[in-house]
């Protein structure tokens, strides 16, 4: 007990004198106070003992929660997880640090397990840690833009505010915020009154505790003076530091048998020459070692004094722990005995049964592997058998399945190391075989003789089962190029068929022709021959296209079956598809269907192009082709186009374009012949009335009844000559009755109407040239209108036809011919519009031109009469005899005009012409009366004027040149109205 008291007293002294902590501890463990032994060679201690002085466990309290203390590690870990940890998604972020940032954990977080390891390593098992820094003025932070943008300072926008300060500008006063209340000292009175008493009590208790501490320290100092020796008092008065002890004594391995180590511990011991010197040196060394021992004892005493309570608690509880350990050892021994017996009686047999079951399962798996290997070994003979039966899909499935087994279940089997390569080569061989078989099948099927068409079955597809097998195999290989191969073969077949047909037709012809190029250069054939050639070619091509359609139909059914769809084929046309699982995706199915559609469209288009070459090489401008031949050609092309459209669903245009080109050539030749004929007739036209054949009257009657030109037969008479339409064999009428209205016509007008009927009939027979003929009709009518205007109104007939003068009769005949054309125009327009809705352009312009021409003829007629009437009135004087010679001449001119136009023009037009002449007469007479100064005063001159007007009106009444209401004597009064 004395030793313990001595150590406690020594510990108080060292604590009061602030003895410096040693950097390295020489303790291996904490020993009891009454048995303190120090070994110099075991001078290195664990790091845990190094922090004994003035230290406590890091988990006992929280740095950042001052009132949180923990009795166990689990409570501290739970506190960190709840208060100083955030969870972001599936990661945990430690916030146990200054400003909520842990310096030892990444900011992106860790998993739950790594978080527990982090807490245990850096926060629970941390022996020493630094306290968080106290707050100082350097801990504050300020936003730099907020400082620079001080609202209390003026806007520094010029040199003065930058160089001379803010006194040069006005300051802005920032008012207090209405949302923040004003805080005064009165707001803290309640808090100061509540805390003041507690603070005074705290100060009083603190001063009392300091006084007690000073008293205990002084008492311990007095006691130590009487009990401690010279060495201890020297040690306490001086600063004790372990650095005085040589480092050799602090090492773990202090081996004195080692010569250098012995030399360091006992320096100069064996070098002393005399025995006395050696004794003295040994005594000094012993004192030095004793001094080192005292230093260590002082350090031990300090540490024991600091941990005395825990030390004695451990000593008192050691016996209880030993008893518990003995009891635990007995229980462990009994448990081991029970486990040993249990293992011998139960576990060994059970494990043996499980081992046997596992061995049996292993044997079964080995047998299965061997059976599987035997099956794989038979793959190549099975492939040969399947290929011999043309079951390509099954062969490819077998190759795929075998490759999958080799890569998944038999991987690493040495005997099969070359089999995957062999299977790949076999797969390539099957692909090449399928491609070759398909090309051979396509060539054989497409080049069958065309004479076998009647012998073919309903499907017109030979060897359907073979085709299905080949296409199934190609689809299984994802080889979709067979569609392009079939298209190329079909094009080659079509080219060969057309060339063979051309050769056959040339062989039957007498002309010597040398074929070049693709075989369409057969220009020496007649129109009938090349139309027959085209007819035979279209029949042959439609037959080939039907074969192609049948093959593509079988391909479509096969593709649907390969994609898992049901094959729907009606009647006997159902295809016997191979039973297999669906291996074609929906996208591949759609892709192949689109390629088949493109195949049909491309083949049909190529057929049209080749037929178009046959048509385009001919020239109907040089070859005379009848309307029937051209109609036959058009019908042939239409039927072929409809057949191709039924097969591919797309209309092809090359052949139609070629036929249209030929039709346009025919239309141009047709129009040029008639235009030239009309021009010749107009140049020889005498502009005299001709008789109308009865056949022509029937044509006009049919047109007027049903507005159709198909029933109108061509006039069988010869060309117009000498004022008559050929040699009339039937009864002829002097006028043409159009809707009961008489038309007196010239020969060129009859020929024009006949030509218009021919245009309409040709357009009806050949709708393909309706647009061309419609434009040609407009051109023909424009030619007739302009040429007749030049010959009659322009007096060109005096030079061309040898006429002496252009009379009113000539003008009236031209006007009546133009009126007949105007009557026909709506019917012709309607006829062409029914054939081609876009082929009626220009008819409205022609109609206006004809109306203008008719108006010019009327102006010409009454212009001639008005001039003569004006000339007579200029020489007239109001004196007897009555009627005067001037008015007799005027009356004669009016009678001659009426005799010239009355048999030709309708009554309304005559009234219009005479009405204008009558108005011009009245205007001229008024002017003459003003010049003669004759007034309406009942004098002799007034009587003469009245008598002249009476004679004038009597002439008009006799001629009936004006409407009845205008033939009264009102002119005798109205003439004086100036």
Could you explain how this protein is built, in words?
With 978 residues, the chain is mostly helical. It has 30 helices and eight strands. The protein has helices at residues 2-16, 47-50, 73-83, 112-124, 144-148, 159-163, 189-227, 230-237, 259-265, 275-306, 308-377, 379-388, 392-408, 419-446, 464-476, 482-508, 527-562, 586-616, 627-648, 654-684, 694-706, 747-765, 770-793, 797-800, 808-835, 843-874, 885-901, 907-932, 940-959, 971-974, and strands at 85-88, 91-94, 692-693, 720-721, 724-725, 732-733, 736-738, 741-743. The strands form four sheets. A two-stranded antiparallel ribbon has the order 1-2. A two-stranded antiparallel ribbon has the order 3-6. The protein is elongated, with a radius of gyration of 67 Å. It starts with a helix and ends with a helix.
Structural features:
two-stranded antiparallel sheet, 978 residues, mainly alpha, 30 helices
**Count of helical regions:** 30
Strand-residue proportion: under 5%
Spatial arrangement of strands, main beta sheet: 1-2
Alpha-beta classification: mainly alpha
Give the low-confidence spans. 1-55, 224-238, 452-459, 567-579, 711-729
The mean pLDDT is: 75
Cα end-to-end separation: 171 Å
Percent in helix: 55-70%
Most strands sheet: 2 strands, antiparallel
Short synopsis of the structure:
Helix content is 62%, strand content 2%. The chain has 978 residues and is mostly helical. The strands form four sheets. A two-stranded antiparallel sheet has the order 1-2. Strands 3-6 form a two-stranded antiparallel ribbon.
């Amino acid at each position: 007990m004395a030793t313990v008291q001595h150590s406690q007293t020594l510990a108080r002294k060292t604590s009061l004198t602030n003895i410096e902590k040693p950097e390295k501890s020489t303790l291996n463990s904490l020993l009891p106070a009454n048995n303190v032994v120090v070994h110099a060679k075991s001078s290195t201690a664990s790091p845990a003992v190094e922090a004994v002085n003035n230290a406590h466990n890091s988990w006992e309290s929280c740095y950042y929660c001052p009132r949180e203390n923990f009795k166990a590690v689990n409570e501290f870990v739970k506190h960190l997880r709840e208060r100083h940890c955030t969870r972001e998604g599936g990661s945990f972020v430690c916030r146990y640090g200054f400003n909520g940032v842990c310096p030892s954990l990444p900011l992106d977080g860790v998993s739950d397990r790594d978080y527990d390891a982090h807490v245990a390593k850096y926060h629970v098992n941390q022996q020493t840690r630094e306290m968080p820094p106290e707050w100082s003025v350097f801990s504050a932070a300020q936003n730099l833009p907020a400082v620079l943008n001080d609202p209390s300072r003026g806007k520094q926008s010029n040199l003065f505010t930058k160089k001379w300060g803010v006194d040069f500008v006005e300051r802005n006063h920032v008012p207090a915020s209405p949302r923040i209340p004003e805080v005064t000292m009165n707001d803290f009175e309640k808090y100061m009154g509540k805390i003041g008493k507690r603070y005074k009590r705290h100060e009083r208790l603190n001063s009392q505790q300091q006084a007690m501490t000073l008293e205990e320290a002084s008492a311990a100092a007095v006691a130590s003076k009487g009990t401690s020796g010279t060495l201890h008092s020297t040690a306490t008065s001086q600063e004790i530091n372990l650095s005085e002890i040589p480092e050799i004594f602090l090492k773990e391995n202090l081996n004195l048998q080692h010569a250098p180590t012995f030399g360091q511990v006992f320096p100069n011991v064996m070098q002393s020459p005399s025995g006395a010197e050696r004794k003295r040196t040994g005594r000094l060394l012993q004192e030095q070692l004793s001094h080192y021992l005292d230093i260590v004892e002082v350090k031990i005493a300090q540490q024991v004094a600091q941990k005395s309570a825990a030390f004695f608690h451990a000593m008192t509880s050691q016996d209880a722990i030993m008893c518990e350990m003995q009891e635990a050892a007995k229980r462990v021994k009994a448990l081991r005995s029970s486990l040993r017996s249990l293992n011998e009686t139960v576990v060994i047999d059970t494990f043996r049964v499980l081992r046997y079951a596992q061995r049996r399962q292993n044997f079964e798996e080995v047998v299965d592997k061997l059976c599987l290997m035997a099956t794989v070994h038979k793959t190549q003979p099975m492939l040969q058998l399947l290929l011999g039966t043309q079951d390509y899909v099954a062969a490819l499935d077998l190759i795929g399945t075998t490759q999958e087994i080799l890569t998944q279940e038999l991987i690493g089997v040495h005997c099969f190391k070359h089999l995957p390569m062999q299977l790949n080569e076999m797969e390539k061989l099957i692909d090449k075989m399928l491609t070759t078989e398909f090309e051979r099948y396509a060539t054989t099927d497409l080049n069958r003789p065309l004479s076998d068409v009647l012998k073919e079955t309903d499907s017109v597809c030979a060897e359907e089962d073979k085709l299905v097998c080949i296409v199934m195999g190609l689809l299984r290989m994802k080889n979709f190029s067979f569609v392009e191969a079939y298209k190329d073969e079909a094009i080659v077949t079509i080219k060969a068929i057309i060339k063979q047909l051309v050769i056959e037709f040339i062989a039957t012809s007498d002309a010597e022709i040398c074929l070049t190029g693709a075989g369409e250069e057969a220009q020496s054939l007649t129109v009938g021959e090349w139309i027959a050639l085209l007819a035979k070619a279209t029949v042959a091509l439609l037959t080939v296209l039907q074969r192609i359609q049948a093959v593509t139909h079988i391909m479509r059914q096969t593709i649907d079956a390969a994609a898992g769809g049901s094959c729907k084929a009606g009647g006997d046309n159902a295809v016997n598809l191979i039973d297999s699982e669906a291996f074609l995706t929906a996208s591949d199915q759609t892709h192949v269907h689109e390629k088949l559609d493109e195949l049909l469209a491309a083949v049909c288009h190529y057929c049209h192009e080749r037929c178009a070459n046959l048509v385009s090489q001919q020239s109907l401008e040089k070859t005379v082709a009848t309307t029937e031949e051209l109609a036959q050609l058009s019908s042939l092309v239409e039927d072929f186009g409809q057949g191709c459209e039924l097969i591919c669903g797309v209309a092809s245009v090359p052949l139609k374009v070629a036929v249209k080109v030929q039709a346009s050539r025919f239309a141009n030749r047709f129009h040029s012949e008639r235009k030239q004929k009309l021009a010749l007739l107009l140049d020889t036209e005498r502009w005299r009335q001709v008789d109308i054949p009865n056949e022509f009257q029937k044509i006009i009657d049919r047109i007027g009844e049903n507005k159709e030109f198909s029933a109108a037969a061509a006039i069988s008479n010869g060309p117009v000559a000498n004022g008559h339409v050929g040699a009339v064999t039937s009864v002829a009428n002097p006028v043409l009755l159009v809707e009961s209205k008489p038309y007196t016509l010239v020969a060129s007008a009859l020929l024009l109407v006949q030509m218009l009927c021919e245009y309409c009939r040709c357009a009806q027979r050949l709708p393909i040239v309706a647009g061309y003929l419609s434009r040609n009709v407009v051109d023909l009518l424009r030619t007739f209108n302009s040429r007749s205007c030049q010959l009659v109104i322009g007096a060109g007939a005096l030079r061309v036809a040898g006429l002496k003068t252009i009379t009113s009769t000539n003008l009236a005949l031209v006007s009546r011919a133009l009126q007949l054309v105007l009557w026909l125009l709506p019917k012709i327009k309607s006829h062409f519009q029914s054939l081609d809705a876009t082929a009626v352009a220009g008819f409205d312009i022609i109609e206006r031109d004809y109306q203008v021409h008719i108006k010019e003829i009327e102006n010409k007629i009454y212009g001639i009469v008005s001039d003569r009437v004006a000339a007579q009135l200029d020489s007239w004087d109001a004196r007897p005899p009555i009627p005067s010679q001037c008015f007799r001449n005027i009356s004669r001119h009016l009678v001659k005009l009426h005799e010239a136009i009355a048999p030709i023009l309708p009554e309304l037009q005559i009234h219009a012409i005479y009405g204008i002449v009558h108005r011009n007469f009245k205007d001229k007479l008024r002017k003459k009366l003003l010049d003669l100064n004759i007034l309406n005063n009942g004098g002799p001159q007034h009587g003469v004027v009245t008598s002249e007007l009476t004679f004038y009106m009597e002439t008009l009444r006799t001629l009936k040149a004006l409407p009845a209401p205008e033939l009264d004597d009102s002119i005798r009064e109205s003439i004086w109205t100036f």
